Batch of 2 targets.
Target 1
Amino acid sequence: MTSTTATPAPTAPLPQSALAAMARLNLVLAAPLAPELVRAVTRFEVASARFDELASKDARDLAPAEFDALGDAQQVIADSFGILAAAGQLHLIDAAQTATRYRQAASHCRRLSAEPAADYDELLCVQDEMAMCRCQLAAAGRLELIEVAS
């Protein structure tokens, strides 16, 4: 008598970004945060990205609405930071702060690259900062904060 057992079809491994997202979801499900903390982290991340986007522009080129948005983003960042600090949960925004450092370094790198007599050593230092930030975000599974697909 022969036995026919069905062998499960192999599946492709999940992409690294999906594994990181699952790990973050497991952390949230294992130790749920208060909704106001989740909201504060989300608002901090979004406001930081908006602030960095606007701050990278020359202030003379900002439209009045963009100038107002810059101030609003600063206020949201400060409010969110205060909520997280009061709860002793500042570690929740470590990745967002690293993303801010990355975006600032990228902006500096673009400015240096546009200068004909740019300091090559400074450019290399800025690129090193970007690489370090990217590695930290990759290790945290948060490359989406700098819009880098893995």
Note: The chain is about 65% helix and 0% strand.
Target 2
Amino acid sequence: MAGDQDQDVVAVILKDHRTMEELFRRMRSVEADRAGALAKFSALLIAHGEAEEAEVYGALKRFRNVDDEEVEHGVEEHAEGNEALLALLEVDEVGSDEWDARLEDLVKAVSHHVDEEERTILNGARESVPDERRAELGAAFLRERERQLAADCGSVENVRGIVRG
């Protein structure tokens, strides 16, 4: 099927990861709209993580070559990334020394997770999960991601609620 490639869960997750990296570059740039980049990043990180946990991680555990411990570790790393995001969102002055320090903590947490997820979970999914199932998971991931985005999931209030349970 021609359209399935666009929905492949591995491809859509990788696309989000590259978007996050671009938003990191914008947040680091004094010439960019850093607050705007942070707002976009916050929404994407929360929508992405919530959609992975709701629609993807559980399904991938059923396949061999997808390490269940890595999936559980991915959930832990989402929590760490969300905590680092909240710490940055709670800094009043964009571009202050504190803001820059919290941004670097966020970059470190998320980059570590992205690297690990791509090497372990997503490579395992690419090798073990049939194309048709990856397309179904991609469609489910995108639906949940859009639902999250429509609900203003990146707001500081929502991120605080996720982090503090």
Note: The mean pLDDT is 93.
